[in-house]
Design brief:
mainly alpha, Rna Polymerase Sigma Factor, Chain: A, Arc Repressor Mutant, subunit A, 9 helices, 72% helix
Length: 189
């Protein structure tokens, strides 16, 4: 058995033990769950929140509070990481929906101006920082659809359900996000 497979199985077994202990009230076990899973969850939330660290941190805390309350009912039908990830994404999407009406960035091109103002050496094509900056400038719903579909692997039906939109709207937002992202990164496609 490859070492990575053994490590994954050991982590899963450890997660099971930690969930059982935390569900029984062991705060130290829950802290270990948090330390193990929060960095990856935070990275997705940070992208979904457009690089707003405070929003991402709020969503992370909300997700882990929900997890603490729901742990006794966790049935191990998926991995703990997947379950926590889903809780966190849902927390971020709830905030997105709550702020959708008042978010002027959904109009679209405000972020493009801020990216265009960066010095040329800071916008070199192909760097991950450019991609992160460009993602931050996307309108919130388009950014959420792009991240959930292209990065997280969600299906359009799942996205539509979570964002309370039609499947066709999810597809249109993905198309819009990809086009804006290409433009922001200087691609001619």
């Amino acid at each position: 058995m490859p070492a990575s497979s053994a490590t994954t199985q050991a982590d899963a077994a450890d997660d099971h033990a930690l969930v059982r202990a935390a569900a029984a009230g062991d705060v130290t076990a829950y802290e270990r769950i948090y330390r193990r899973h929060s960095p990856r969850v935070y990275a997705v939330l940070w992208r979904l929140c457009g690089g707003h660290a405070a929003r991402a941190e709020d969503a992370l805390q909300e997700a882990f509070l929900q997890a603490w309350r729901a742990l006794p009912g966790f049935r191990f039908e998926s991995s703990l990481g997947t379950w926590l990830h889903r809780l966190a994404v849902n927390a971020a999407l709830m905030e997105l929906r709550a702020n959708a009406t008042g978010d002027a960035r959904d109009a679209g091109e405000e972020g493009w101006e801020s990216l265009a103002m960066l010095p040329a050496q800071d916008r070199c094509a192909g760097t991950s920082m450019d991609l992160e900056r460009a993602l931050e400038t996307l309108p919130p719903r388009a950014r959420a659809v792009l991240i959930l579909h292209d990065i997280e692997g969600w299906k359009h039906q799942e996205i539509a359900d979570q964002l309370q939109m039609a499947v066709g709207s999810s597809k249109a937002q993905l198309h819009r996000a990809r086009g804006l992202l290409r433009a922001r990164l200087g691609e001619t496609a």
